[in-house]
């Protein structure tokens, strides 16, 4: 079998990461870690495998059908996790008595969905998860948003490049109630509204009718969706409504965190996952070319659903795929991440010991040093050096050893510096 | 259901990582990455899921029975990878025509084995993999060893703490041949020898007999195992044997890399995996308290077996479990990794904006700042600050805002510094 027709490939829909792919992935993960760390989030992680029951219990409706499920040799129903939140809830519930709340935790988690392979969608992606558990005030929402914006900034995206659309399920519920739509119709209404943009408004109308709304209630839903500002929405509610107080505080907190200019009230933001109960948000590129960069919101019932005491939480998920598409398309992909520092080569076995001693000394000084594994002709050495590429190169021949110096060559500027050799 | 008896746990044999567990894991992974980077290895990664056929084709005999296999919804046979080497071989074979050899690649990969749950063994672990592909000379072995030793040094383990036991399957084969044991008996002999220490010498004798060796051949094997030095082993072979030349070069290279004092010839080192063909090695703590810290060797047939052109390689695997046990047991576990930098709290909502402005400014200066999510009484704030713990804390009350300064308190020394506030 020829090497150009290898027998094996990665499983369908899953990515291999060659060194040139890892350059960006490492940069992105380091950025996520750095932003989380600067905001004092603490890291956690868990197996990619979870019990199927946990995932079915907590995952959103759409996700349940896409779970990558299987049985182990003992017949246990397991699955590759489609998202990290059920795992987080399980871990916190298990130690709820001893953990000190509020918690600020983050993870970078590979998540799997068994989707049909259309439009280049993959069956796995990495997601940065930020969660704050046990803080009722809206400063939790602002803290996860500020941390995500910090990551965007570190990736070179300015405040004008991204807009964060937000709404509130609590607000939506209060408005629906004010419009005469009873609480038990709300979940179906949220689900229908979340389909906006994916299916036609006509089909959404049909869904609303099917869920039991009458004509005038459907008309109220459409009127509600035409609300363009937070002020207009709040004006419908009684001034002493807790929703009004909460959203006014949210606006004030965003201003204090210098983020007001990036935020946009958008009543159409609902989020697919069933567990959200309060503020919900999705961040888009300002040109609206791509799917959401990140999204999230507040959930109140997650811990109770896995056996814990009821505890409020706020979560944000930021995937690795859309941000890469955007940086590539906008010409902002950092290109220098793969460049190596220094490579050392030698002409004959007689210079190997001398080259090794130099490499060891430079590594002790904290430099990245690639030491040739065998003798090379100068041409071969320099072509290899410029291929990765390395920033600089030292090539040692017999003359260098006898005069006790070698030349360090800057491969960009071609400038040369003398380096003493120990022989 | 009470929170002390949560419904869900991690799947049997798999680890959750709480923040206190992540502190060491991050330190270890950063150390591995740093050592690989300093030696100019390039990162790669691949899905934790692979086709079952690939893994069965390449994995060692023992591993095949422990593969965590399952079927996806299309009936494809997949598995959680038990080791990274088959994946590496597949990725390289797929691009063999365009990659520039030799390659120096590394990965930190979670690997899964479905073992019976005895003696606290887990069903997953993380393994640092270093591989050099396409370099025939023994400088490849020395380079992966030097990189692993660099990681040990960064973890605080000195040259006297670890001994690297090595042998060579090529040497063992040449010795068996010199003792009159034909090549087709070698694989079974290697497998029997690899069981040493796990089963009795009597049982190994039985295995050797069962594989077709007669009494005098078995006696030759035992004589061979009594060889205590490399010199004694090489003296048996003709001086012009390529094995003699290779191992003499190996010794010289180890000296040039200042590693000779850590190495110990040990003819009993065989390694379980079927694919090794040359040098094999395992590193142990000097007191021999623990299982091997890392192990590896040269494999010549791996790429051909997945459809690639025959290409030699050297690999090293370094797991996360034994090193953690050793550092813990020896009292060398770094304890400060979890400590936070600075936390800022405030007494009343009126000081929130001022505290936020200070937090934003300090984060811009590159400091890690935890900003309280709500007002706290001083006692509650300082108890939270010392719990994580943070290195220092700023607590802002109304008096601080009016005088335009707050106190930064060093939580270890109790020293206080004045910090100007913007109001």
Can you put this structure into words, describing what you see?
The structure is a homodimer of 423-residue chains. In chain A, the strands form 3 sheets. In chain A, strands 1-5-6-11-10-9-7-8 form an 8-stranded mixed β-sheet. A 5-stranded mixed β-sheet of chain A has the order 13-12-14-15-16, with helices on both faces. Chain A has helices at 19-38, 52-58, 61-64, 85-94, 139-154, 169-178, 186-194, 201-210, 215-225, 230-236, 242-256, 302-305, 321-329, 352-364, 378-387, 398-403; strands at 42-43, 49-51, 68-71, 77-80, 103-112, 124-133, 162-168, 263-265, 276-285, 294-299, 313-319, 340-346, 369-371, 390-396, 405-410, 416-420. Chain A has 16 helices and 16 strands. In chain A, strand 3 (68-71) and strand 4 (77-80) form a beta hairpin. Chain A folds into 2 domains: 19-329, BirA Bifunctional Protein, domain 2, CATH 3.30.930.10; 340-420, Anticodon-binding domain (Rossmann fold, 3-Layer(aba) Sandwich), CATH 3.40.50.800. The relative contact order of chain A is 0.11. With 423 residues, chain A is α+β, with helices and mostly antiparallel strands. Chains A and B meet through helix 1, strand 1, strand 2, strand 3 and helix 4 of A and helix 1, strand 1, strand 2, strand 3 and helix 4 of B.
Query: Structural class per helix/strand content of chain A?
Result: alpha+beta
Report the principal-axis shape of chain A.
elongated
Q: Largest sheet of chain A, order of strands side by side? A: 1-5-6-11-10-9-7-8
Second rung of CATH, namely the architecture of the largest domain in chain A: 2-Layer Sandwich
Distance between the termini of chain A: 48 Å
């Amino acid at each position: 079998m020829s090497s150009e027709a290898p027998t094996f490939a990665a499983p369908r829909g899953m990515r291999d990461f060659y060194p040139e792919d890892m350059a960006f992935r490492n940069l992105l993960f380091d950025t996520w870690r750095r932003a989380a760390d600067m905001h004092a989030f603490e890291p956690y992680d868990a197996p990619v495998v979870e019990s199927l029951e946990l995932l079915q219990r907590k995952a959103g409706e759409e996700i349940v059908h896409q779970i990558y499920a299987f049985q182990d040799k003992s017949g246990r129903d397991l699955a590759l996790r489609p998202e990290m939140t059920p795992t987080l809830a399980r871990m916190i519930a298990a130690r709820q008595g001893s953990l000190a709340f509020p918690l600020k935790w983050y993870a970078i988690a590979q998540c799997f969905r068994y989707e049909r392979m259309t439009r280049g969608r993959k069956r796995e992606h990495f997601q940065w998860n930020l969660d704050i558990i046990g803080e009722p005030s809206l400063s939790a929402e602002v803290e996860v948003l500020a941390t995500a914006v910090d990551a965007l900034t570190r990736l070179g995206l300015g405040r004008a490049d991204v807009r964060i659309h937000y709404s509130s399920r609590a607000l939506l519920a209060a408005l629906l109630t004010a419009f005469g739509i009873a609480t038990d119709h709300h979940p179906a209404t949220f689900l229908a509204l979340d389909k906006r943009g994916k299916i036609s408004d006509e089909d959404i109308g049909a869904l609303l009718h099917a869920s039991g709304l009458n004509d005038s209630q459907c008309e109220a839903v459409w009127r509600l969706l035409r609300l363009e500002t937070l002020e207009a929405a709040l004006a419908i509610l009684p001034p002493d409504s807790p929703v009004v107080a909460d959203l006014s505080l949210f606006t004030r907190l965003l201003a204090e965190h210098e983020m007001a200019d990036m935020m946009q009230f958008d009543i159409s933001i609902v989020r697919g996952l069933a567990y959200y109960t309060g503020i919900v948000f999705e961040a888009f590129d300002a040109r609206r070319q791509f799917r959401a960069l990140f999204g999230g919101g507040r959930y109140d019932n997650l811990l109770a659903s896995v056996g814990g005491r009821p505890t409020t939480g706020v979560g944000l998920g930021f995937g690795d795929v859309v941000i890469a598409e955007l940086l590539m398309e906008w010409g902002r992909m950092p290109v220098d991440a793969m460049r190596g520092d220094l490579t050392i080569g030698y002409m004959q076995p007689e210079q190997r010991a001398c080259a090794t001693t130099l490499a060891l000394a430079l590594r002790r000084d904290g430099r990245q040093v690639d030491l040739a594994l065998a003798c090379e002709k100068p041409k071969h050495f320099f072509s290899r050096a410029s291929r990765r590429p390395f920033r600089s190169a030292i090539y040692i021949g017999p003359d260098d050893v006898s005069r006790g110096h070698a030349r360090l060559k800057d491969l960009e500027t071609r400038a040369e510096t003398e380096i003493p050799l120990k022989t």
